[in-house]
Structure formats: structure tokens, C-alpha cells
Amino acid sequence: MRRLTLLAVALTLIACDRSKPELEKTLAQVQQISAEKDTLLKEVTATSQFIAEINTEIAKVRNANTGKPTNVQPGDVADNSTPSQRRAVVLDKVKELSARMNATEGRLAASRKRVVEMAGNDSSMKVQLAAYDSTIASFRTIMDNQKAEIANLTTQVNSLTSENTQLKTDNVQLVSDKTQLTGEKDQLTTERNTVYYVVGTKEELLKRHIIEQTGGMLGLGKTQVPARELNPADFTTIDKTKVAEIPFPKANTPYKIVTRQAAAALESTPDEHGRIMGSIKIKDPDTFWAASKYLIVIEQ
After folding, report:
1. 294: enclosing H helix or E strand
2. Which of 120, 239, 259, 290 is most buried, most CB within 10 Å of its CB?
């Protein structure tokens, strides 16, 4: 296309019966104008490509923030770097893009000024100047669109910063929630495994209001049962998953369980009167403590 333009100008100049020096000067000017257009076109095209690359990198950073696959290649912005570092790199590229845009605008104005100076009052060059102005107008339209895209890129980077701030807040909340849930779980586990026992004589336990007596006549034949209201402070606290044996104060004295624990869960079953010697040895804690977490043992 450039060759056709140069040829057309040359033919025009020949038709105008110009001298050879004038013709050579004009051809040189036309070539310079064409070179100016080519240079500006390359800059505008490079800027468009740069914008596309930044858009791709912003998408990668956003995906990295949300945990989506990023298809990161070695050397990319998002390769082995934190989201904050990635955003900083992208923001620097947007700033570089703005600087390049400003420089291109300056070169555009300077280029047109040079073409005007070359054209002077030459009527044949006026045609070239008009065509060049049309090209510049197209470039300005493209550059205006690029400016709008740059503004949009800046907005997107700022949005990434806001998204990351929200992600950090959400992460802190998740950690807090996890800690709270872990604490609640541990507390529930502790409460579930905590049981209480007391071993004593009938008189001691009656005095401390741990047991009551029911039934019988004239003070005889009464049965000892747990009090209606039991205070954990009156008992020894243990973890049923860690304590499998409860020793008695007197090894050779029989004792009897008056609470509702399952005797079948013991290693040795009580005698026909429900009495046990030496200690209580538990083989199945969950079954033994299922009916009551309070164990009351009375010396017989």
C-alpha cells in the first residue's frame, strides 16, 4: 500500500513537471510521513496488547484470591508470590501503561507538527497531510478507548485490594470460629467424660446430705438412696475415660453402690447382697456411667 502511495505521488509530481531535486525531496517527505504512521501504529498496537496482558493477569490474581485454578506459568505475575505481591505488580504495570499512553500522545502531537512543517505550502503534500490527519484521528479514537480501559484496569486493581481485605477479614473470622468450635467441642467432651464419685459411711453421707433414707418402720429397714439434689463439690471428680479403678478406703471392708450404675460393666460382679471388696474396677466406662454420672458407695 505504501509503495502504491509513493508511486502515485511520484506520478503526480512528474505530471507537474517538477525538477528531480524537488521530486527526491518530496519522496523523502512521503516516506517520512509513512514511517511516522507506522511507528504510531506499532505503539497503539503494543498498548492494546499490554492492556490484554494486564487483564489476563488481573484474572489470575482474582482466581488466586478465590482459590480457583489460575493456569500460572513460570515467570507469570502470580507465580510463587502472595496475592498482595501480585496486585502490587499488576498496579505497577497499570501505572507503566498510563505513562506509555502519555508518551504516545506526546509523540502523536510532535509527529503531526513535523508533518505540517514538511508540507508547508506544497499543494501535493496537503493531500498527504489530510490523509495523515485522518490516521491521527483514528489513532486518537483508539487511544481514548484505551484510556477508558486503563481507568477500568485501575478500578479492577482497587477492587482486588478490597476483595483481599474482605478475604483477610473472612479468614480471621473463620479462624476465630474454628477456635471457638474447637473450644466448645473440647468443653463438651470434657463435660461428657466428667463423672463424680464418693465413698463413705452411711452416717457421713447422711450428714453431708448426699444420701437419704426411705421406707422401713419404726426406724428399722430403711433403704439408702441418693439425695434429690447432688452437689458436685461433695464428690471426687474424674475423667471416666482415664480412671478405670476406684479404690476403697478400707481394703477388707465390703462396700455397696447405691446409685444406678450398671454392675454388668464391672470386671467383677457384686455378691448376692450387692457388695464389693477392695475396689471398683470398670471394664466398660460408657455402660457403667450411662445411667448416672454420680457414683455413691456406702461402707457396709
Report:
1. strand 294-299
2. 259
Task: Tell me, yes or no, whether 98 lies in a domain.
Answer: yes
More confident residue, 207 or 136: 207
Question: Counting Cβ atoms within 10 Å, is residue 81 exposed (0-12), middle (13-18) or buried (19+)?
Answer: middle
In angstroms, rounded to a whole number, what is the distance separating the alpha carbons of residues 277 and 266?
13
How many structural domains is the chain composed of?
2
Averaged pLDDT, 6-20? 49
Give the 3-state secondary structure of 208-229.
CCCEEEECCECCECCEEEECCC
Q: Are 159 and 120 in contact (CB under 8 A)?
A: no
Last residue of a domain, one of 174, 202, 237: 174
**CATH number for 156:** 1.20.58
**Which residues, including other chains, have CB under 8 Å from residue 218's CB and lie 6 or more apart?**
none
- Give the range of the structural domain holding residue 22, as residue numbers without chain letter: 2-174
The residue among 190 and 177 whose pLDDT is bigger is 190
